[in-house]
Design a protein that fits this description.
By secondary structure, the chain is of the alpha/beta class. About 25% of the residues lie in helices and about 25% in strands. It has 11 helices and 19 strands. Strands 2, 3, 4, 5, 6, 7, 8, 9 and 10 form a 9-stranded parallel sheet that branches. The two termini are about 30 Å apart. The structure holds pyridoxal-5'-phosphate. Pyridoxal-5'-phosphate (PLP) binds near residues 161, 195, 196, 197 and 221.
Length: about 375
């Protein structure tokens, strides 16, 4: 049986991208974000590949995601970016040796109430201007008192997160970094500021630790700049096949809502991929896919299981031909933009109907 929609994930590309992060930020340890099922790429295989390549830590959003990584048998520790939410999670995190990002005093209370957490590994997350998670900067003295009370806690460092790192040269980012530095002046402990955009675009944000996510999957976090331009390789190739080809007359309308009307007598290909696979329904007429090495435009609305494409540029196309939806040669960033979203959402939106294959990954 030929799978309908396949995502081929090249684990060697992910390892290459880790090396590229290290080239950009040579003095930093790397905490790789593998939350959201490794940005839709598959958290276990991705984490294994990063672990083999020597990543220093793997970061997930929550305990459920951390538990999924158990079967990967990683050497690198797993960090919980949202920390622990209950006494049970605090006990489990301590037992499993997870690194806990603490962003609020109630989480400190949880850990302090847990005798088994006496040697827990903790990060403190500071809000330097993102205004989502984190202690206010003026809490640093109190947090130092917490650390002084718990010399057995394994303190990992001070983390903050940038709100606008993907925008070139905005004052807000410089202000966040300066406020963070000022609050921590003379305070011991490792520093971590940068996500992918931060570490690529803001050299001053490359500190003891960097925390890339998107760049490891080979996509660019910076608008208008491709992953390839920045030295990253796209790791995921999403492909489907042509299911039917028919020739229609000028004036014939294609698909739901008749959103495309054939300007000429022309071949229309039906491709077996739809929004139930993760192709955004917002993708408009004219958005590209690749058939036999050539770009052809969408013609008609994305439906649940199918899309329709204008095959005039590839008259020799056959039923069964592979169709590249995004991947090397057709950047996912471009498809996301055409759909009015960001590549993060495109990756995370791939569904369990997509068949995943893993290639590469040998060092
Ligand atoms: C997800 C996440 C990252 C990684 O962000 P990218 O933009 O994908 O590089 C870094 N830090 C934190 C706190 C995160 O939640």
């Amino acid at each position: 049986m030929i799978p309908r929609v396949t995502a081929t994930v090249n684990l060697s590309a992910i390892q290459h991208n880790l090396r590229q992060v290290r080239r950009l930020s040579p003095g930093s340890r790397v905490m790789a974000a593998v939350k959201a099922d490794g940005y839709g790429h598959g958290a276990v295989p991705v984490s294994r590949a990063l672990d083999e390549a020597g990543v220093d830590c793997l970061a997930v959003a929550c305990m459920e995601e951390a538990q999924e990584l158990r079967e990967a048998h990683l050497r690198a520790p797993v960090a919980l970016l949202e920390g622990v939410l209950s006494p049970e999670e605090a006990a489990l995190a301590a037992y499993e040796g997870m690194h806990v990002v603490v962003h609020a005093f109630w989480q400190i209370d949880l850990l302090e109430a847990m005798p088994s957490a006496s040697n827990i590994a903790v990060w403190f997350k500071l809000d330097s201007g993102m205004h989502r998670l984190g202690f206010p900067l003026d809490a640093v003295p109190r947090l130092r008192q917490v650390l002084a009370r718990h010399p057995s806690w394994r303190f990992q460092g001070w983390m903050t997160h940038l709100a606008r790192a993907d925008e070139p040269d905005v004052a807000a980012t410089r202000q966040q970094i300066e406020a963070y530095d000022a609050a921590l002046a003379g305070v011991p402990g490792p520093r971590s500021i940068a996500n992918s955009a931060g570490l690529i675009a803001w050299p001053e944000a490359r500190r003891d630790w960097v925390r890339p996510g998107l760049a490891l999957y080979g996509a660019s976090p910076l608008p208008g700049r491709s992953g390839a331009e920045l030295g990253f390789q796209p790791a995921l190739r999403l492909e489907s096949r042509i299911l039917a080809i028919r020739t229609y007359e000028a004036g014939d309308a294609i698909g739901y809502g008749a959103s495309y009307v054939c300007p000429d007598r022309m071949p229309i290909g039906v491709v077996a991929v739809g929004y139930a696979d993760g192709i955004h329904r917002a993708l408009p007429n004219g958005a590209p896919v690749v058939v036999r090495g050539r770009r052809v435009p969408l013609a008609g609305r994305v439906s649940m299981d199918m899309i329709t494409v204008d095959l005039r540029a590839v008259p020799e196309a056959q039923v069964g031909d592979p169709v590249l939806i995004f991947g090397e040669g057709l950047p996912a960033e471009e498809i996301a933009e055409r759909a009015g979203t960001i590549v993060y959402e495109l990756f995370c939106g791939l569904t369990n109907r997509v068949r995943f294959r893993y290639v590469g990954g040998d060092l």
